[in-house]
């Protein structure tokens, strides 16, 4: 349904990604950020779903063509740890946001796992954004302080998550509230990465569909 494109970062360098356009011409935009596996077919499929829901969706390729197989967590961890999160967010992700907003459309940001952390960093660093939806990812506070978040956020977390733990989520929620920031937070009795239907060991269809409905409704409200 979508297509691979090249777009410009603010620094003038080229970045690539997967773009799926909505049926109507003046659709709002959603930038979709990958898990630590890379720009997988599953993330492209989510872009296609956003397009069907009425949004132009662009997933920038933060790993520049590298996609890690699901069983290889060591390689995924290595790729994630070698990613310059600030450059990825303020240049590649911001470039994708600017690409979608070029005709005056409002743009939101969403991401999963690694992409959830990038979404929160983007909420503090990318001025063109209008809203963000976070899926089971929180960056270290030195990368993005809740007090610096500039857009309404919705967040989805799993109670059985050993990476983005319930304690970490509680701390994030508390800090956002203390800073007076707009946050809708949902917890699911599910595993980390429960939205990923290609990983049967963790996928929870009921939780995934509930979260998807909430996310598209939230973007519809804030992006128009």
From TrEMBL:
Domain of life of the native organism: Bacteria
Residue span, Dienelactone hydrolase domain: 17-222
UniProt keyword annotation of Hydrolase present: yes
Keywords: Hydrolase
Hydrolase among keywords: yes
UniProt-listed Enzyme Commission number(s): 3.1.1.45
GO MF assignments: carboxymethylenebutenolidase activity
Descriptive protein name: Carboxymethylenebutenolidase
Organism annotation: Bradyrhizobium yuanmingense
